[in-house]
């Protein structure tokens, strides 16, 4: 019999099993059989659930929403910068064809330190 990695369960399924175990409706072994995973996996989910709740009560739970908010802010700024760069590029192309804007181009071969008439 080949023992492979158990299938990845959706978070809602894990949460449902953990709540049922914590309420006494199921044992960890019963939940493991129902999900097709090891009893250790169910115990790990339970531990993670409790730690997450503890962090939330300690005020650390808001960190993810702050990060998501910052990422959204950065995405908006990035889009604005890309738009600005695009507009500037078009302006440069429009005016870049005139000789007044271009720097003078050297004619012939110029050697450093020699005057060219």
TrEMBL record:
> Which segments constitute the Insertion element IS150 protein InsJ-like helix-turn-helix domain?
14-59
Question: What Pfam family does this protein match (any one)?
Answer: HTH_28
- Gene3D superfamilies (alphabetical): Winged helix-like DNA-binding domain superfamily/Winged helix DNA-binding domain
Q: Which domain of life is it from?
A: Bacteria
- What is the protein name stated in its UniProt record? Insertion element IS150 protein InsJ-like helix-turn-helix domain-containing protein
Source organism of this protein record: Streptomyces venetus
């Amino acid at each position: 019999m080949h023992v492979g990695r158990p299938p990845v369960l959706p978070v809602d399924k894990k949460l449902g099993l953990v709540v049922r175990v914590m309420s006494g409706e199921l044992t960890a072994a019963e939940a493991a059989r129902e999900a097709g995973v090891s009893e250790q996996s169910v115990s790990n989910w339970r531990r993670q659930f409790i730690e997450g709740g503890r962090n939330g009560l300690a005020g650390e739970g808001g960190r993810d929403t702050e990060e998501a908010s910052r990422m959204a802010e950065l995405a908006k700024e990035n889009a604005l910068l890309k738009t600005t760069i695009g507009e500037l590029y078009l302006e440069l192309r429009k005016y870049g064809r005139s000789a007044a804007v271009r720097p003078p181009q050297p004619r012939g071969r110029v050697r450093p330190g020699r005057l060219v008439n």
